[in-house]
Amino acid sequence: MTSINEKATTLLGLHQPGNPVILPTVWDAWSANLAVSAGFQALTVGSHPVSDSIGKPDNEGITFDELLHRISQITAAVDLPLSVDIESGYGLEPARLIEGLIGAGAVGLNIEDTVHSEGGRLREPQEHADFVGGLRQAADAAGVHVVVNARTDLFVKQVGDESDRVDRAIARLKLAAEAGADVLYPVGRHDDATQKRLTSELPLPVNAIGLPDQDDPASFGPLGVARVSFGPFFQAALAAHAATLLGRWS
User: Fold this and answer.
1) Pick from 97, 90, 150: which is nearest to 116 by CA?
2) How many CB atoms lie within 10 A of CB 90?
3) CA 239 from chain center: how many Å?
4) pLDDT averaged over consecutive 10-residue blocks of the chain (250 residues)?
5) Which branch of life, at top level (predicted)?
6) Which residues pair with 147 in a beta bridge?
């Protein structure tokens, strides 16, 4: 079995702007094994698919302990680097989050700036950066370079005026980079010009979201993207196929 430090180093090294790592978003051991069989090098776990899989809502409708239980099942089934969407942190301190993730065998995380436990407010830019910094410090103290993917929801929540939204997202994510992030995630569907601006002006590898049943996998590299994940869309595409199959028999 690969050591957790080796997995963390591998995951970080896969982030190459222009040659993006594809991290299929899984939610249980079954979906993780599907991705392993398809030949992927690393995986990410999405909060939305995990929540759906146990009949609970997204946006911290599950507890951190429930998430860790699922992560442990996945890491017991597959021996690949695993990054985990921890939403906005479940109201927990960074040290507790890092301890739990490492204990469950994960080596990466997504951290959102939407605080679900406080009415869905957006953290202030420095507030989010400080939380990112806390995660980095906790990982350093634990001796594992957990790959921190700092996410902003400015685009998906359409916060503020559209005319300067890209500027504000870049400024916000630059603070997260200075605080110790490894990857930056301006989550949303962007036109090519916006995506190129994000990847050219942000100082770290950029994560983009892909639609597995619609997007061209080769389209992300020329835009400078370093990582592509599927969010809830892989599970949704499978659900659509399942509905077609089951519909023949209902």
Assistant:
1) 90
2) 18
3) 21
4) 92 98 98 97 97 94 97 98 98 98 98 94 97 98 98 94 95 98 97 98 98 97 98 96 96
5) Bacteria
6) 108
One-character DSSP codes across the chain:
---HHHHHHHHHHT--TTSPEEE-EE-SHHHHHHHHHTT-S-EEE-HHHHHHHTT--TTT-S-HHHHHHHHHHHHHH--S-EEEE-TT-TT--HHHHHHHHHHHT--EEEE-SEEGGGTTEEPPHHHHHHHHHHHHHHHHHHT---EEEEEE-TTTTT-S-GGGHHHHHHHHHHHHHHHT-SEEEE-S---HHHHHHHHHHSSS-BEEE--TTTS-GGGSGGGT--EEE-TTHHHHHHHHHHHHHHHTT-
Query: How is domain 2-245 classified at the architecture level of CATH?
Result: Alpha-Beta Barrel (3.20)
The domain locations on the chain are 2-245
| Separation of alpha carbons 4 and 106, rounded Å | 8
pTM (two decimals):
0.96
pLDDT at 2: 81
Retrieve residue 1's tokens.
């079995």
pLDDT at 137: 98
